[in-house]
Amino acid sequence: MHSLREKVKEQLVLSSDVKSLRIIDKILHLAIAAEAEEIIFEPDREGLAVVFHSHGEGKKIFVLSEKIAASVRQGLKAAGGVYPLTGKNLTDGKFKKDFLGYKIVFSLAVRATSAGEKIIVGLQKKQFELKGVGRLGLAKKSAEAVKRILQKRKGLLLVAGSGDSGVTTTLYSFLNYVNQPHLSAATIEKEIACDLPNVNQSRLDPLSGFSADLAIRSLARQDSEVVMIGELDDFYTAEAAMQLALSGHFVLAGVNSPTIVSALSVLRDLSVSAPLFNAAVKLVLAQRLIDGNCPYCLVKDRPNTNTFKKIKEKINFNELLKKMRRDRIVSSRASRPEQFTFYKNKGCAKCRQTGKLGKIGIFEILEITPAVKKIIKANHLNLIGTEIIKQGNYSLAEDALTKAMNGLTKISEVVKLL
Fold this sequence. Notes:
Helix content is 36%, strand content 28%. The protein has two domains: 4-126, Beta-Lactamase; 133-417, P-loop containing nucleotide triphosphate hydrolases (Rossmann fold), CATH 3.40.50. The chain contains 15 helices and 15 strands. With 418 residues, it is α/β, with parallel strands linked by helices. A seven-stranded mixed sheet has the order 9-8-10-11-7-12-15, sandwiched between helices. A six-stranded antiparallel sheet has the order 3-2-1-6-5-4. It has a two-stranded antiparallel sheet with strand order 13-14.
C-alpha cells in the first residue's frame, strides 16, 4: 500500500510550467480523499509546506518550491475572495467545490508570520441531513423538556456550541418540528444550510447593509410566528432577538460557545441584561460532537485505573446511575464504572482502519426556572453547573459517559471532556 506522501508524488507533478490552479485542485482533491479537516500551507526553509490535519494530528505531505508557492498563495486567495493583507494579521475567505455528491466548503484564513504568509484551509462536507428531534441523541428527559418548549412556541430557545458542533443541525431539527403549513416561519442565517418548505429563509449580507439586527427588526413588523436566527454574535442582534421573543414570536437562536455556562457569559459580555434574558429565554441547550465508534469492529476495552479515577473526581457516579435508570439508558445493576463494559475499535475497511465512524452529539440542557433566574440576576454563573444537575439533567461529560457505557463512543472521548 502506498503512503499518502507517495500518492502525492505520483499525482502532483510540480514544475514551473504547471498552472497554480491545477496544483491547487490536486491538493484539494487529495485532502478530501484523505478526509483531512484542514490543509495548512506553511512557510519553511524549503518553500511552502503542505500539511494535512485530521483528528488533531498533522502530517507534512509535500513542500512547494518558492517559485510555485507565490502563485499557489495567490490562487488560493483569489478563490476565497481574500485581498492582499494590509497590516492585518488575519484575513478570512470562503469557497465551495462539488465532490462526489458533496458540496465541500473551504474556509480560508491568511496569517502574516515572520516567515511569510501562512494559509489555513478548513474543509467541511455539506450534505445536510435534517434529523428529527428524537434522532439528535438527546437523553429522554432532555428531549421531553425541549419538546415541551417547542410545543408551547413561546419565548426563546437558545442552542450553544462552538464551531462544527452541530448547532445548525439542531436548530433546523427544532424548526422542522414546529413547522406546519399554516404557520408563518422565517430564518436569518449567514449561510442557508437546508431548504425548508413554507419557511421564508433569509441570507445575511452585511456588506450591503442587511445585518442580523436589521433583519430581526424587519421580522418584528411582520407576521412570522417562528423565527430561527443562526447566531447571536453582537449586542444588537442578541437584544433584538430577545425583544422579538417578548413581542409574541417564538425564537430559536444559536450562540457560539461550548457550554451553557460559557454561553451565559458570552451574552453577559455582549451586555445583554439579566432581566431581559430572564424574561425572554425559556431553555438553553449546549452541545458538542465527539467521535463515534465504528460498529463493525468493536472490541471490549479495559480502561486503566487512572481513567476511572479521573471520572470519579469529576462525576458523581451514583447520581448519574439514578438518572440513567430513570431514563432506562442502562439496566445493569452495576454500581461502579469499572463494572461496566466499554468498547474500542480494532479498525476495519468500513472505518478505513480509524475505528471512527461519524460523529455523535452530546448535550446538556438548562431550563430557566425561578431558581436559575435568581442565579443569573446575581451573576453567580459558577452555580449554573450545579443547577443543571439539580434539575435532573446531564452535564456534557455525563452524557458522553452514558454513551461510552452503551458502546457509542470510547471512554477516551469522555476523558478529553474532563
